[in-house]
Predict the 3D structure of the following.
Amino acid sequence: MSRTPRTGVAPVPGQQSRPDAGPTPTDPAPAAPPTVTPPSVTPTAGTLARSAAQAAGRRLTRPAVGLGDVVPAPASVRPRPAADFVLAADAAVRVSADPAAREVANHLAELLRPATGYPLPVADLPPTPGPLQLTLSTAAPRGPAATVSDDAEGYRLDVDPDAVRITAGTATGLFHGVQTLRQLLPVAVESRTPVAQHWVVPGGTIVDRPRFPYRGMMLDVARHFFGVEDVCRVIDHLARYKLNHLHLHLTDDQGWRIAVDSWPRLATVGGRTAVGGGPGGWYTAADYRRIVAYAARRHVTVVPEVDLPGHTNAALVAYPGLAPDKVAPPPYTGTEVGFSYVDPTDERTYDFVADVLGEVAALTPGPWLHIGGDEAYKVKGSAYTGFVERTQRIVAGLGRTVVGWHQIAPAGHVDGRVLQWWGTDGDDPTVAEAVRRGARVILSPGNHAYLDMKYAPDTPIGHDWAGLIDVHRAYHWDPATHLTGVPAESVLGVEAPLWTESVTSLAEIEFMVFPRLPALAEVAWSTPAARSWAGLRKRLAGHGPRWHAAGIAFHPSPEIPWPAAPAGRHLPDAAETHRNPAPGQPSPARDTATTPDVR
Ligand code: TNX
């Protein structure tokens, strides 16, 4: 199988080249107009930006954002207005001598270099502390808010006039601290080209840790296929908001999206279709590894889902022997659910399950294997629970933890198993009973967390079977009390699924994700004490210009007091949106300036 390598993410329609992200209406006025001495040779943009900033001196300007203007809301924020920090052009990033921490420092430098134009070399700590410090500290003192969190993902951020210091027990904590720092810099930090600007960070201390360990988004790449670069861009979005899991719904009736060596027709035949008759596509092992590696560098774990025993029409087209009647069904490109299933009475089905899950597990470093289990309406009673129990044992035999949609609840317990709740009311005795037997729960309530629901009746794409979900509805629920019989200790976390029956492009993904995903990230990360609707509205409003500057499409929800301009962009016409190319077909022209560094 050969596929044309993808070279970049889709340009956001209507914005073929990035805005230069110069100061926006929310940026502070510079203290003095930068004066640039005419150079004798033609300067680069970076040189100009550096000399402009130097010429303006290190005089303090008011920071563009407040220390608390962070999404998700940090656990503790103590501003020190007299302690603002200004990044100097000759700053270096100093980091504890540890390979994973060093990666985080490199990531920080890569985030800051394009907009600042500063070289920002990365070097070990000690000897010289320097103005940007990332310190791994397992021996950090414990105690109330003044200390570094001892949580695996917690961090502490201290901003003083002489330095910004991020301290954490793990590289993941440092990474989250870096995301906070990014949000505290002016909007222009999102620019891909140098901007003359005072890079001010508001003074004070943030001590932060997540409320729930699992915070994720699901992307359905089966109904419509999204290439590696699109998925990597989604991973960037997760990382910004401290989400740490990307669940990929890899298989469904309309398409099989991952190459499996032992059953090659799954991809080459089952991967050729998509909802609405589009060209489909699939990931080679190398493609999938690129996604996993890109995610790992951003402290995001990939959760692969192979949906079984239902949602399998594409597999049956490829291998009719898996079908109950052994007859190949026609390829399916509609949007109904619940009609297809692999034959639970045939031993070959379990060879298929073991082979597929074995290969997917071998490509996936994370601990989770998601086996679907939803809407298998034609496999009833003990045929269904027997299938799920056998599949759970296969997953356990691979040394992985099973995750399934909450319909798998009646099946017997295996150690550590996780149910993903997608119901719309807070009561399910079967789930509560499974939790009593030891299951943990990921909460994806359809009426709060489903990113494929419309925002409002006039939202041009999406469904409404679980209701309309505006930002208020996405935000207003508490995972600790949401489901009867599921106490906070049994809640592993929160995940926001994006099903893609009606979502066909990266711009449409972003439109459904922003601003709801950041709101849901706050539900998963922040303590109830730190959360408030008024605070979220204000903080999201400040992120609109950031998304605009980063070329991210978003829904300009009327609930959010966006700054006067730019107010976001509406969903582009379908004709403008990018569609993925057929296998073997060239990608449409891309804006290489937006290409994520996929490695
Ligand atoms: C239900 S929620 C499904 C999906 C659909 C989605 C559309 C769940 C586990 N299954 O197959 O894509 O609704 O909203």
